[in-house]
Prior knowledge:
Layout: H1 2-9, H2 13-18, E1 35-47, E2 54-65, E3 68-81, E4 84-90
Antiparallel strand pairs: 1-2, 2-3, 3-4
Amino acid sequence: MRSRYSAFAVMDAAYLLKTWHSSTRPAHVDFDPKLRWTGLDIVGTTGGTAFHTDGTVEFIAHYTESGQPGSMRENSSFVREDGNWVYLSAR
């Protein structure tokens, strides 16, 4: 989750697409140039260890948009695909 947040912060579309599950991966990632990611708080997790095939990460991502602060909260699902952890969907 932290690496995907960082990829959003630096607008690294290639990394985001690489770490997105093949069944839910979009054709491309669009970034809003007015949005600047400013922090990430992990609220909770389930699964996700070396012994699991799936897991979730609940987080709050902080940003500024056109100079105004904001945040978004999400509970993301991750699964293993070809041995790697990838983002599946928001829950």
